Amino acid sequence: MSPEGLGFARIGKGLGDAPMLDVCGFHPAQAGINLTEQLAHIARANKLKKQSCAAVIDLGKYELFPVEAPNVPENELRGAVAWRIQEMIDFAVEEAVIDVFDFPGDRPANQPRQVYAVVARESLIREHSEAIRGAHMQLNAIDIPDLALRNIAGLLPEDSQGVAFLYITGERSLITITKHKSLYFSRSFPIGFNHLQAEDLDKVEDTENTEIAGWYETLTLEIQRSIDYYESHFRQSPLMNLVLAPIEIELPQLQQHLEQSLGIKVRKLDIASILSVPQDLDEKIQARTLLAVGEALRQ
């Protein structure tokens, strides 16, 4: 769910090992039509009424914090974490919805339990919940992009050794690092394809002091910092693979720039390589529906 529109997807059983993407599309936002009406149209057009579903909130509409878990009973964990992170958010903790999930892997016996805390405004969650139910769909969960992308990255062949996955929207990017289908690290930052787009493709390579070249270097630095943290904090072997999620516009220089700057293998993802796709989906529609596809893979 984003200001640009709604991506939607449904996963079915394929004939082979790969899951089958049997419904996939994007419904652009329209002035004067509210969220419930948009969802109802999608449900009618794709025969999704009364089916169970999960939603993904937009990048920038939530926060994800790594925190030390308070030593409390499990049923009191969310409340205890809420008080621990209340100084980290810019609104009252009473107005927040908070969930937690554990760091992956085994922790040493002498180290405290670490969790990720997800924080979003209760008003946003309520708005999405009411819209989905108003469209006569059964809501199972409201998720975050980090975990939707984790579901896709878990299908990549590189995941067995650890893989970074970079998702770029118009104004923001999100990097996740997964291994064995577990999310180790994720981080969002305000660099999008609108910052990286150059009218002259030579502009990035030939003019070191251009604003666009600066954005490329900042993006590279954010990725390198993320990889360094993953390797040091989780005591992992060097990460050697970065996969680029489909992007709405062409950035022909991005893959080569990252490969040369980071010194690791970089490739682009076509979802047809990991899913059974009954129709051709161009990169733009893949980009616009990627979070929906990832959430449809939720187990």
What does this entry look like structurally?
With 299 residues, this protein is α/β, with parallel strands linked by helices. The protein has three domains: 5-54 and 136-141, no CATH class; 62-123, Dna Ligase, domain 1, CATH 3.30.1490; 157-268, ATPase, nucleotide binding domain (Nucleotidyltransferase, domain 5). Helices cover 32% and strands 26% of the residues. It has nine helices and twelve strands. Helix 1 packs across helix 3. The longest helix has 23 residues, at 211-233.
Short characterization:
The chain has 299 residues and is of the alpha/beta class.
CATH topology of the largest domain: Nucleotidyltransferase, domain 5
Q: Shape from CA axes?
A: globular
**Under the CATH scheme, which class of the largest domain?**
Alpha Beta
Topology order in helix (H) and strand (E) letters: EEHEEHEEHEHEEEHHHEHEH
The strands making up the biggest β-sheet line up spatially as 10-9-8-11-12
Radius of gyration: 20 Å
Strand proportion, as a percent range, falls in 25-35%
Class inferred from helices and paired strands:
alpha/beta
What can be said about the biggest beta sheet? 5 strands, mixed
What is the total tally of β strands?
Answer: 12
CATH architecture label name of the largest domain: 2-Layer Sandwich
What is the rounded distance between the termini?
20 Å
Count of discrete alpha- or pi-helical segments spanning 4 or more residues = 9
Spans where pLDDT lies below 50 across 5 or more residues: none
State the domain count: 3
In helices, the fraction of residues equals: 25-40%
